[in-house]
Known about the structure:
Blueprint: E1 17-23, H1 33-50, E2 59-62, H2 72-89, E3 96-98, H3 111-120, H4 124-131, H5 134-141, H6 145-153, E4 168-173, E5 176-182, H7 203-206, E6 217-221, H8 231-244, E7 247-250, E8 257-263, E9 266-272, E10 285-292, E11 297-306, E12 311-321, H9 330-338, H10 345-352, E13 358-363, E14 366-371, H11 382-395, H12 402-422, H13 427-444, H14 447-464, H15 468-481, H16 486-503, H17 506-516, H18 524-536, H19 540-552, H20 557-571, H21 574-579
Parallel strand pairs: 1-2, 2-3, 5-6, 6-7, 7-9
Antiparallel strand pairs: 1-10, 4-5, 8-9, 10-11, 11-12, 13-14
Amino acid sequence: MKHKKNINTGKNGLSKELKWLHISDFHCKENIKWSQDLVLNSLLNDIKQKYSGESKPDLIFVTGDISFSGKKAEFDMAQEFIDKLSEVTLVEKNKVFFVPGNHDIDRNEEEDAIVGARLLISSLPELDRIYSNPKRLKTLYNRQKNYRNFANANSSEKIYSENSSIHNIEIELKSIKIKILLLDSAWLAHDETDCRKLAVGLQQIKNCVDDNHQNYLVIALMHHPVSWLKEFEELLIENALIKDTHIVLRGHVHQGDTSSIEKNDERLVVFTAGATYKSRTSVNSYSFGKLNLLTGKGDKFSHSYSSATNSWNISGTDLWKLKLSPVLSSKQVYSLVSSQAVEFPNYISCLINDFKTDVPRKHQSGYVLLNKSVALDLDSEKIVDFIGQLQWLICFQYSWEKSDWTEQFNGIALNLDNELASITELSSELKHLEQESKNLLSKLLDTSSDKIDSLDDSIRDFISTGEFDNAYNLIEKWENGVDLKDGELRFLKGKKLEVALVEKSDEKIQLSINDFKNIEDLNVNELLLLSSAYYQVKMFPDAETTIIKSLDMGADIVLVRPLARAIAGQTGNKHLVERVM
């Protein structure tokens, strides 16, 4: 068995985590400032002690009721707190995200307009009519002007205008593309009878996402639960959130909770925050969330305030998991795995695709083959963990920066292969499983073209970044270590010549020519490649003979013309120049 060094998958190893702080409903109000400062300063100290250094959050989410009554002075108080929070957590202000709550409305503004709008909007057509009228929106949003100024002041670019209704922000963090939807569920809020009189408007979601929403981790912030929306809209918005987002964070109900909504093959994870400040004697709360970007699994730590000790304690831990459907086909998975020099490409591909489920698992004094889903009393199993990470990555591919995703996938696949190869006591059984898997895949998949396509992509990537040695090494590994058909060996010889031409290494070009020119029945593209190689090493007569042969076989004159003229300039063949005019 070959034993290879384990690969460190990425700059942060296998601990790629997205971390966030979630606060909500702290209701800044001038006449209770002393009590609020007491609780919120205690909060800042707690966050500094628990979540600084490597544990610090990457993002901060604030899900509404920042102020008590939407007044500018209250948002000035909130600004002081946000400044301190940013300083304590070392999170830049442009990574702090807000949505408005019902308390962030100045209810003294536009009273007639809001009463009329709430009565008028009794159906989807009426709601759509409001959204299509910027003047009416401007009037209604005027009640949020202090919130909107506050949110804009804490962003690197202006998010809100006086009549804007669609708000989202795209960021890239830890190689993950994240889209954050800032959904306003409070724009129709007015009094204590708000329940079932509010609306979001499907536009707020659909105008922020499209058919490529799978290219992002999509996080939605909104203040109210969907059960507070008008009945005609509740199910519509819930379904849109399930389909187009992965995580929703909300507030309003002053009671923390973690839940998930599942429909078909989709799951929406919902985090509801308790009130960060309700009163000095209340059980105030905040939460800290983590998502492992290599597994889709997460934790949420809830914290509660004790007025007796003016301190915060962890009051609960919730485990949760995102659920996504694979975006790569079984054939694409096979192509990715088999493009590497691994010992068990077929078996690993079958494990990722769940075509095979038995894996080596530690049992008492040795290993046995056992279904990977069977629960064992073990803290961690590398093989099972690696398979889970690869299965998650094929669901989450498009949200990653491409090169980092490839690095992660390839590294984990190689580590899995190393672990399998190291289990010498099951070497014969694993060889049998590899052959069994190969036979199974040959029946289920047409793998030959996918395998070559994946290899071609890898070689092109190396060429584009000038990593010529890596390109040669990959080609040689395939030539020496993989069972290839004649057409695939021919392809590899052509790729080796292509790499040498781009590198402009006369020595390697000459070696590749000797290996390539003896192939029988070269096609037009292969003849052009060979002619270019002859020209590069100044073998002009051979270049001329080869390019004329390509023209005789119907080569595209426009494509051939620059090379043909260059060759004719060296050989003096006027007829060749005339032929490509």
